[in-house]
Amino acid sequence: MTTSKEALREQMKERLIVALDVASRREAFYFVRLLQEEAGAYKIGMQLYNSEGPDMVEYIQLYGGKVFVDLKFHDIPNTVAQTSRVMARRQAFMYTMHAGGGSKMLKASAEAVADEAAKLAIEKPLALGVTVLTSISQQEFHDELGLTVSIGEHVLHLAQMAKRSGLDGVVCSPHEIKAIREVCGEDFLIVTPGVRPAWAGSDDQQRIMTPGEAIRMGASYLVVGRPITKAEDPAAAARRIVDEMTEAAWESLK
After folding, report:
1. Model pTM?
2. What confidence score (pLDDT) does residue 200 get?
């Protein structure tokens, strides 16, 4: 079965998640309306969620957008499990928790969200474990967090634990994609922030990669914020990123 480049581009568009790192629903709605034909989903993080409340998930869904709720839960297993049920009731597309919370917490979340989705007869939100933030450098990892292994080794350890615990995938920097893909398999989701096109600045990200490189490495979804939302023409920036993703995927098919 052959895939046309146009069909491949549609697939890549669905794999682009725009980070709505803004403080108001007005700003969020502006980008959702502007980018509804250019991206597959939108990420709500702590800034927007805490500024405008949890109903932002539903508001964006009313515009037809899938919502990735990125609140990075990290608490005792029961608390995270009950909050994961809320993610199912809100019909989130994806949600996150810190993988460093341990296997009991991860397993409790995975089981709770699956159970709640089954009760409601809805599609289960994708549960993701956050490994190591892309803003952290190896020096900070060693000097400030006191961990002697490399970031890559620690990320791989957390990814394997997340898979054993029943999570759908992990969030990691593009630099860890290849190792996780080799160990956790093709069905394990790898969501990568820290994606910066060559024509955009790195901002406060440390472990970054271009969209094309991330796709070639095996990323499932790319999360891109400021290179799109701070661009002079956000829609054109999103199209340019999807084009780069498409070219990388197309080359891999040859």
Report:
1. 0.92
2. 60
